[in-house]
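the two lines:
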Amino acid sequence: MWVRRLAVFAALLTFVLIVAGGLVTNTDSGLACPDWPLCHGSAVPKMVGGVAVEHTHRLLATAAGLCTVGLVAGLLPRRRSILLCGVMLPALLSGAFAGAWFQQHGGEFPPWAIFLVVIGFGGFVAVISQERGPSRLAALALALVVAQGLLGGLTVIYRLPPVVLVLHTATSMLFLVSLVALAWRLSGRPAAPSAMATPLLFLTAAAVYLQIVLGAAVRHTGAGLVCVDLPYCRGAIWPSGVHPAVHLHMAHRAFAFVVLGLVAWNAAAAFRAGRVRPLALAGPALAVLQIVLGVLAITTFKDLVPLTAHLLVAALLLADVVSLAVLAGPSRARVPAEAPALGAAT
Amino acid sequence: MNNPKSAAIAAMCAALLPCAAFAAGSIEGSVDFSGKPPTAAKLHREADPFCAKKPMTNPEVLVKNGKLENVWVHVSKGAKDVPVAADAKEVEMDQKDCMYEPRMAVAQVGQKIRAKNGDPVLHNVHTYLGATTVFNKGMPNDKASPIEYVAKEEGMMKWKCDVHPWMRGFIGISKNPYQAVTGADGSFKIDNVPPGKYTIESWHEKYGTKKQDITVEDGKPAKVDFKYDGTEKGTG
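prediction for all of em together
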């Protein structure tokens, strides 16, 4: 029982964490703590201005990480969870923190630190490949949240490189997906009728994810306002002879309508199938709201509220589609078979 | 003030005030940079055809002969709040060739700051104090009316243009006038500082803050030098 509740809590906490991450970028607080993993050399810095924003994000990430450790401990066989949380994870984090310390004190990442990180992730891959069902999802979530933390560290150490920032957003969404899927898998809710088109749902989830990654690329390469006219860009739907950033921006705009179409199609199918009607109806509503927020982000010159809400609604839309996919997916049938193991864990 | 003794003391103080002002000291020095300055990277301004016409490199770190430019040096402790002078000039931040000009300036709480657009293209002026947006307004072209703002709080006011993300500007705001920005030779001078003990702080967008305690004596320049070696981490 506690594992199920912890999974739901961790998923909800991840929404808060994603919003906090958005606030870090949108309030220009990314370098308010110029060091990592400490902030101005302290684990408890003075929480003012950008430091409060950035450090709160780090604390929430730590809390999400600890919740995920709890999920691994509750779902994996004892020996494997000890191997993962007691050996691999400390080795990996020791390597990362030591590497960061050397790099920030005028040195380079020492080879042994990189070795520890690689060995740690290797252990995660080995465990993930051996597990099945919810325990695999829990191990995957832990690997993702650790990777996410390290990417966060790299964004600070290398002073916000766009590629790392995009990866940071992309990984955060995969972490959310793993927790949402896990929460549903542990929920014990009956599977939705097979009338729902499962492959299309997975395609839609992939499209929403791709759109989020495109959005992250727009955000972190500074392409958010390369087109300030609407609905056109520099007077054309697809202007020619322009910088690739302009096409990136327009691709994000155009793909929003592809996503809206897919989400609406799935919603109609899911609605006909019944049982998951609230989730089915939420999809198109969120997609339309997301387009409106995207427009507002441009017309307000990236004002804090619409810009941050744009990220939150993206996460909600992804979670909605993933929820539908998990509930409709054939893997739901395996849950009862795993119930004794879960019962033993709880 | 009905007491004749108090009145006499007040009259004496009034008579001595001009002398006290004359006796004020100054703070001067320079900001040294001992490390290897980073190579100024090319700014990617190609997304806007107007900005793309003039290739530029990143002016974040400007070092000449071991001296660091664009460092905000200010008295951060020990000085009383001073109201802005009635004849204080406006601090002007222009947007010229898709860059802020100047990159670093200083203002006093209560002083007027004016943002101009000298370019024929849209800039949005997005300013922050800490994590809080001070104002975020668009200026469509060089015919746009200037944006005027009266500084209300001390701190580092960061300026950004979201349309052209390489554009960064800074205005250090203080509650007193004892502040300066280092020039191309890395030097600074702060005049008319009353005698006393102070903490003086330097701030650079890439290399952050350093502090020193100094004593200013009557009519004498107090010397203070700051040293950066390039390993420091700033918050700009």
